[in-house]
Design goal:
The structure holds two protein chains of two kinds.
Chain A (H helix, E strand, L loop, with lengths): L3 H6 L2 H5 L4 E2 L10 H13 L10 H21 L7 E4 L2 H16 L5 E5 L8 H10 L2 E5 L9 H7 L4 E7 L11 H10 L3 E5 L11 H4 L3 E5 L10 E5 L1 H5 L11 E4 L4 E3 L13 H17 L1 H20 L4 E3 L9 E6 L4 H10 L2 E2 L1 E3 L4 H7 L4 E5 L6 H19 L1
Parallel strand pairs in A: 1-13, 3-4, 3-5, 5-6, 6-7
Antiparallel strand pairs in A: 2-8, 7-8, 9-10, 11-12, 12-15, 14-15
Helix pairs in contact in A: 3-11, 4-11, 5-6, 12-15
Chain B lengths: L3 H4 L2 H8 L12 E7 L4 E10 L2 E10 L2 H14 L4 H16 L8 H9 L13 H17 L3 E4 L2
The chains are: A alpha/beta, B alpha+beta.
Chain lengths: 403, 154
């Protein structure tokens, strides 16, 4: 198990905000000293633009940037660091694939399959890609227990399926998707697979080769790194088959007025000066997470999720959204007769930070028949006492609105 | 820290739970939908104008306690008002909840303005100000757009 008290010491935000119960890591995680100081130190000592610099400082900056790529490769157990593309975040990663891969490979009559748990960022890019290509977007359902319905998914697959894009862990229900099985079934039909790993990557070991997916996307800021940096992992052959998306400096080998030759992956997809310090900060964040041990983190998150489900289930009038058998670190709920926005305000008054609203998953809200939910999501600095504070604040909220 | 009971006063909770004038008008002369994408609140404001006067006003939709109570109280104070009076009431209300320059209202509107007073507690909660102003923005959009405008508060 991880030592939550020692971990909290590493996060200055808790020192500056005494009494804060932060239950919104699903939106963005807080930052440890290793990341904050690591970025500041990089700017102080080693910063210059990367690549093509002939002077020592630029070489050091390039080395730090590329070391972050290697750290990311190792973190995902990817085969080759050329499979790691730095982007702004998961949103950009998915848009890159939807535009560049979709533009080349998606044809009229083809189908793209997503799940009904997707964040708008793994839904709208595919909706748009389908509209451009004349393809059809299909939605695989979860069942009433919050579990992904594999049989229904399999029935949706056909020779027309070109892409299956699913989340690894839902940002609303905490459902963990059987991404290995999904990938196997999709590949049997010749479809590609993209996994949105935003909620999974901070919480458990992730091995892209064991999953077998073609693409895996995540955002740095959800794994205790800075905002503005994210990762698109792509199997090398899959990446190499994709034409450039954004063009400009850094991604070419030669340019003439009539013709341009492009770099190989990953640089083909990194036009312009990248978020250099962001990548370095991400590398620090991954190192920090790795130092705690991802198996230990998973154990912590699973234990905390189980405790939270137990505690919240006992509150009268509280309706938990079901997250299946392997629910991970994200809990959504509603209180009878109280709008989530009002719950959020009362909880904030008790110094409990949660997120309220549709969580960028409006079709899922429609399915659940609610305008929004209250969502608590956990990180490595949360413990049972935080859950108890949440429960007490919910009780105060019930009292306020039952008078 | 402000006491939450100043935000969620009894009158707010009452209008939030039992909103007045929550129905669609059969023959509106103006209507507009208000949408707060942040929280998903949706409200449709219906107006039946008789010349320059608001003969009837109602709203429909669902939202948080603040936006529902604000919709309810708004319809109560707007009924029977002239457009100028209505705009003046909104201007004063808006200034109060956003901390803008105070807007004076004439003696005959003082009572209506006071009826909206309980909602001004939102000014201590910046994230919630839009909940209170949403129906008013929809009202304004209805006046401008006749029968088909949507206004977003975010």
């Amino acid at each position: 198990m991880i030592d939550v008290r020692a971990i909290r010491e590493e996060f200055p935000v808790f020192e500056r905000n005494p009494g804060l119960v932060f239950l919104d890591s699903g939106a963005s995680a807080q930052k440890p000293r290793a990341v904050i100081d690591g970025i500041a130190e990089f700017y102080r000592s080693d910063y210059a633009n990367v690549h093509r610099g002939v002077y020592g400082l630029s070489q050091r900056s390039t080395d730090a940037f590329e070391a972050a790529r290697e750290a990311t490769r190792a973190f995902l157990n990817a085969a080759d660091e050329r499979e790691i593309v730095f982007v702004r975040g998961a949103t950009e990663a998915i848009n890159l694939v939807a535009h560049a891969w979709g533009g080349k490979f998606l044809k009229a009559g083809d189908e793209v399959v997503i799940s009904d748990l997707e964040h708008h960022s793994n839904l709208v890019p595919w909706q748009m890609a389908c509209q451009r290509a004349g393809a059809t977007l299909r939605v695989a359902p979860t069942d009433e227990t919050g579990e992904f319905d594999l049989a229904a998914f399999e029935a949706l697959l056909s020779p027309k399926t070109r892409m299956v894009a699913v989340t690894h862990v839902s940002n609303v229900t905490g459902t963990m998707m059987p991404v290995e099985t999904i990938t196997r079934l999709a590949h049997q039909r010749g479809a590609m697979v993209l996994v949105d790993g935003c909620q999974a990557i901070p919480r458990m070991p992730v091995d892209v080769r064991a999953i077998g997916c073609d693409f895996y996307a995540f955002s740095g800021h959800k794994v205790y790194g800075p905002s503005g940096i994210g990762v698109l992992y792509g199997r090398y052959e899959a990446l190499d088959a994709i034409p450039p998306w954004e063009t400009g400096g850094g991604m070419i080998t030669s340019v003439e007025y009539a013709h341009t030759e492009f770099q190989d992956p990953p640089h083909r997809f990194e036009a312009g000066t990248p978020d250099i310090a962001g990548a370095v900060g991400l590398g620090k964040a991954l190192g920090f997470v790795e130092s705690l041990g991802r198996a230990a983190i998973r154990e912590h998150e699973v234990e905390l999720t189980g405790y939270a489900v137990d505690v919240l289930s006992r509150i009268p009038g509280l309706n938990l959204v079901k997250g299946g058998q392997r629910q991970m670190s994200v809990l959504s709920f509603n209180l009878d007769g109280v709008h989530p926005h009002d719950v959020g305000t009362v909880l904030d008054q008790h110094n409990v930070a949660v997120r309220v609203g549709h969580h960028c998953a409006q079709p899922l809200m429609d399915k659940l028949g609610v305008p929004g939910t209250v969502r608590a999501s956990f990180g490595i600095y949360n413990d049972r006492a935080d859950i108890d504070r949440l429960a007490a604040a919910i009780e105060a909220c019930r009292e306020m609105f039952s008078r | 820290m402000m006491d939450l009971r100043e935000l969620y006063q009894d009158i707010i909770l009452d209008h939030g739970r039992h909103p007045r004038n929550r129905r669609a008008l059969d023959h509106p002369t103006h209507l507009a939908k208000g949408h707060n994408p942040l929280c998903g609140d949706r409200v449709t404001v219906y107006l039946a104008m008789d010349g320059d006067r608001i003969a009837d006003v109602s709203f429909d939709g669902r939202g948080c306690a603040i936006s529902t109570a604000s919709s309810s109280l708004m319809t109560e104070v707007l009924k029977g008002k002239t457009l100028d009076e209505a705009r003046l009431l909104f201007a004063r209300f808006h200034a109060e909840v956003t901390g803008g320059d105070p807007v004076e209202v004439p003696e005959e509107l003082a009572e209506d303005s006071e009826r909206l007073e309980p909602l001004t507690g939102v000014k201590a909660y910046p994230a919630r100000v839009k909940c209170a102003t949403l129906p008013w923005h929809a009202f304004e959009a209805a006046l401008k757009g006749g029968l088909g405008d949507t206004v977003k508060t975010e």
